Amino acid sequence: QKEVEQNSGPLSVPEGAIASLNCTYSDRGSQSFFWYRQYSGKSPELIMFIYSNGDKEDGRFTAQLNKASQYVSLLIRDSQPSDSATYLCAVAGAGGTSYGKLTFGQGTILTVHP
Amino acid sequence: GAVVSQHPSRVICKSGTSVKIECRSLDFQATTMFWYRQFPKQSLMLMATSNEGSKATYEQGVEKDKFLINHASLTLSTLTVTSAHPEDSSFYICSAKRDPRSLDIQYFGAGTRLSVL
Question: Residue A105 and residue B34: Cβ atoms within 8 Å?
């Protein structure tokens, strides 16, 4: 059973602060990792994807990947109230019947308060 | 961009009826589409993988005779919930991969909220 674990939160941060979201995964062979944002009642929206160890930055978002520790994180700098949503970590299957399929974590609820 | 259109956005139906949900990739060809279901306060659960021109692959525990999937063209996949019952009420979301060789990026439709009375 391929698993993706996230702290469900809720995570509450003040406006302007850094929000740190974490995710661990069980399939050591996984190569592709994604962060999606989901507003209440809406479908997921891709924020970041990362394949290589290290950091990847896109605007206020930074994804960090450590394959040895099977850990991926998302940092949101200068958090805004509009960032308040559920953040889903997704991991693509590495092979066999799971190849190409995404396994989602349970999501972390982020609240950014003014 | 990579736009995936899903229709309808909301369906309310009586128990025992069948409901069809369409998923279209508007600006790219999608050889592979996925169907997910999401219950309140839970994460997305993959139901099936839909490949153009072939039978869908269902995840364990998903009844293929109840959730009929057709991927007749490179831009359209449909999910039919047959003889829907209240326990089928959920948020159904499709996604599409732009390129089967791509880095696994899936683009999601807006979702369909199904309520079975």
Answer: no
pLDDT recorded at residue B41: 87
Query: Taking CB atoms and an 8 Å cut-off, how many pairs form between chains A and B?
Result: 48
CA distance to partner chain A, nearest, from residue B117 (Å): 20
B5 touches chain A (CB under 8 A): no
The model's pLDDT over B41-75, given as tens digits with 9 standing for 90+, comes to 899 999 999 888 888 999 999 999 999 999 888 89
Residue A107 vs residues A38, A55, B3, B80, B99: alpha-carbon distances, Å = 9, 21, 24, 28, 26
Find which of B43, B90, B95 to mutate to test the A interface (most A CBs within 10 Å of its CB).
B43
Residues of chain B positioned with their CB less than 8 A from the CB of A3:
none
pLDDT score, position A1:
60
CA–CA distance, A7 with A22 (Å, rounded to integer): 7
Query: Whole-angstrom Cα distance, residue A44 to residue A63?
Result: 17
Q: Which among B93, B94, B99 has a CA at the least distance from the CA of B74? A: B99
- Average pLDDT per consecutive 10 residues, chain A (114 residues; last block may be shorter): 84 97 93 94 94 95 96 98 96 77 93 95
Query: What pLDDT is attached to residue A6?
Result: 95
Q: Does A102 contact B109 at a Cβ distance shorter than 8 Å?
A: no
- From B30, B27, B67, B32, select the one nearest B47 (Cα to Cα): B67
